[in-house]
Amino acid sequence: MSMSSSRASQHQRHLPPSLNSPIIIGYAHDAKSGKTEQAIRDGANVIIWSFLHLEIDDDGAVGGGKIRTELNLEEIRTIRDRYEHVMHLAAFGGWNGPHPPATMTGKQWFDVFLHFNTANGHVFDGVDWDYEGHDDLQSPTAQLTIDTLDIMADFSVEAKKHGMIVSMAPAESYLDASIKPGSVDEKFSLALDLPPRAWASDRYYASEDDRALVESKGFRHAGRQCYVYVLAKAGVDTFDWISIQLYESYSPFAHDVHQRKLEQVDALMIRIHQLIKGYTVTDLPLESSEYEVKLPASKLVLGIANKWADGLKVCKVEPSAVRSAYESTLTEHGRGFLGVMFWTIEEEGIADGERLTHLLSREFKKLGLSSEL
Question: What's the whole-model pTM score?
Answer without folding.
Answer: 0.96
